């Protein structure tokens, strides 16, 4: 039996057979079953205080928000976005939106104005919930370019002109709301993700995804009522929604939300004081904890911890075993993507771990290793022995159902009944999958997927920059570090001050998480004859690796005509 069939037996469905809705499964059904007093979410504030929301509180507040959306004229299918840090209003918005059958899109609060503008426009966002400061800096200046954005709700202070206040919206709304009939295939969530080319992709998920959220939380994280679960991912990314918002509540557990940032001592204190029993985190954080030394974990009582798991980047065997030594639990690596919506491949608790391997596919997930052939527009795949691209048989419940406004890109992601992941993997003789690398140019930095094109287009907005190519270079802590290669416009000489100015520009527009750390000036960038910058070659040269097939490389200018190189780091 697949893990999906198991989950369906545990889920309730809307009363009177009116379908399946994520918010009902995560919140309301627990209240109906008499567990309203149970702690749903515990917020650990920066100042050390704690804010608790029971299932009943969350049920009522999200119903108020659903009524508020109704009063604003929001219809099923309309998109509601958040641009918030990890505060209660984000979680209330999430479930209120799903209750109203609108579509939730959480934007990463540390994004700069440019990624925010692009995503609000592409997602055709109708309602945005944010703070006064975020609005003033990132949205108000471009509001005229966002014709779909009809309502902005400000959670703090006096709402500026053209916006509404959270308090007013909530206090005017009833806390009773009956979730309308919801089909499993109704749109529920949009997660932005990045590719090598084009604008960021808006991956659309439907209410049926909750089957996979529940199934994987049980099968891989062993979550159940009574557990204290901490997913350290920010809700601005897919992990923070699937496992930071939905999964723990569907399972009736308590979710811990840390409103502050990473700090080793604080993190160990949270594990110990909150008696976290299941912990889902990421390799960058694990590497930073390893760096902070083994004395800290020894000073904290971590005996409540039952399961530790990791996602988002390769987890090396050393980090898996460090968990066992320092925390008393090894890390279980898990693999999935924005497009898969939930864990697909994992080292499962209660089974032997293979340190360094991503794991094995869950029951119900058919994973294949393939080679892709491009036949004009169409893609054909062939099974491959050993290493190749990871492909998944289409049809699991949390499979993305489209890239908003990008039908051709969606279709191109499938071939022969399989979804092509873009990851290169190796399958060993026992059916375990090992990560090899990406098949494209996307970059993984501190667990965040970054499309080089989005960074390059911001670099090109700098008045001195003529061309830009961005690559990820290996970094011992964050996995990959962004490095930019630029050519300058005629007559402009590159020096360290200009380099710093370009980096500062990128940081301002993109936000610190996705801006390059280093920029170098080049007289020319390697390009194909059709004019595409060959990032692969930039990277190979930087790392001293073989340059590979250069048959499409355009003739490069003679070195003698080159201006001197300069470099700047932030
Ligand atoms: O390259 C793989 C890497 O992260 C990519 C997906 O990123 P994103 O859509 O942002 O979703 C992140 C959270 C699920 C994958 O294509 N990745 C994910 N998990 C692993 C991984 N790489 C190596 N090992 C993993 N366990």
Description:
The protein contains 17 helices and 29 strands. It is α/β, with parallel strands linked by helices. It folds into 2 domains: 3-427, 3-Layer(aba) Sandwich (Rossmann fold), CATH 3.40.50.12780; 441-569, ANL, C-terminal domain (GMP Synthetase, Chain A, domain 3, 2-Layer Sandwich), CATH 3.30.300. It has a 9-stranded mixed beta sheet. Strands 17, 18, 19, 21, 22 and 23 form a 6-stranded antiparallel beta sheet that branches. Helix 1 (3-10) packs across helix 8 (209-219), helix 2 crosses helix 4 (88-99) and helix 3 (55-71) packs across helix 4. The longest helix is centred in the N-terminal third of the chain and has 17 residues, at 55-71. The protein is globular, with a radius of gyration of 24 Å. The N and C termini lie far apart (52 Å). Residues 559-564 have low confidence and may be disordered. Bound molecules: adenosine-5'-monophosphate-propyl ester. Adenosine-5'-monophosphate-propyl ester is lined by residues 193, 238-239, 311-315, 333-338, 358, 421, 423, 435, 438, 444, 449. Residues 193, 238-239, 311-315, 333-338, 358, 421, 423, 435, 438, 444, 449 line the site of adenosine-5'-monophosphate-propyl ester.
